[in-house]
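Continuing from the previous page...

OK, I double-checked the sequence for Periplasmic copper-binding protein NosD beta helix domain-containing protein against my notes and this is the correct one:
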Amino acid sequence: MALVVGCDGGDGGSDKGRRPSGAQVTIRVPADAPTISAAVSLARPGDLVLIAPGVYHESVKIDTARITLRGASRHKVVIDGRLRQPNGVVVAAPGVAVENLTVENNTQNGVLVTGSAAAAAGLPGQSGHYDTGDEPVTFLKSFLVSHVTATRNGLYGIYAFSAQNGVIERSYTSGGADSGIYVGQCKPCHIVVRDNIAELNAVGYEGTNASGDMYVVRNRLVGNRVGLTTNSDHQEKLLPQRDAVIAGNLIAANQQRATPQQADGGWGTGIGIDGGSDNQFVRNRVADNSNAGLVITATADMASVGNRIVDNTFTGNGVDVGWTFPTATRGRGNCLRGNDLRTTVPVRLATTASCPLPAKSPSPGGRWAMPTAPGGIPFTEVAAPGRQPQFPHATTTGATVVPAVPAPPDMADIPLPPVSLLAEDARVRAS
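Thanks. Re-ran it with the corrected sequence; updated structure tokens here:
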């Protein structure tokens, strides 16, 4: 049953309290409610909040389950934080879909999906992370972020923290001062990050302590400072990171100067593995990263163990694959098989570390001349994004039903990205 609900009936009550039992309605902004937040406050599970074109200066928190928040036009519906609020959209209830809108100019995150009360309250992140102290781990379960443009945000464009059973898809992120897309503190995650574009961020995609059924597939991570990292970090719970699948991604030209400078100074690297274990890197095209295509290293007390690098293509990188362990903590059981590559540090890794390897086999390390990272620019000055594809039939399709657990991708359906995609990104490499 589809209804259009008004904001107020004029007698001190609202239509929300008078609707037929079980009815699902569309609440239109601003026709039925003057602000997005007001519309969300009226919504019940199963409702659609449909936003007309306009610039909305508000922070929207969704704490009612199974609401769909959708813009009528992806580039014309803009939630603009004006650098006065930490988050554009906060999803704090299960089964919520956020679709077809732009979110920008927030001091922390464009879209935050979280089961953490501390994070949802907008407490300041430390070094790009949320250290939630003694707060117990509570997961938000089931979410969808689709066809969202997140640009010029002070930490992350799209951030899933202490969340499970979700999908981030067909979205575009730029100007993330830490990373464009971030998944942190989940085990098992049951999260799929697919078919997104991340460019002009400090890091395109970052997964910290994100373990178990964690899939990053078919994304274009081009023209950032670092393309992708998966790592363990003591600032978040549920470490160490392990068991993610990184497949079918284009990870290229990640030495873009006109980007925010990340605190740890990463630069020119396609894929970085820092204290992450048992991850699979399959059929990625990793090209033209000035420092290295893929780096394995270790934190002070967490080794990188059992990572498998299989059937990837590396071209034009400073070093295609480099393993380096600057502390006494070293990797073990990391291996390569079937990759198209030319240079490794140490040399001959494709032979000496060929899969399969015994889990306790020590991983050799080496050093190479790494380029010096140049200074960056403020996230507020990153180039504005172009128009991105619209959510199909945004104004005529009803509310989205978010699955309780997303289906994992079929690995057989994830090919190596074609070399022609590099030509499409020439403007990023040349700028």
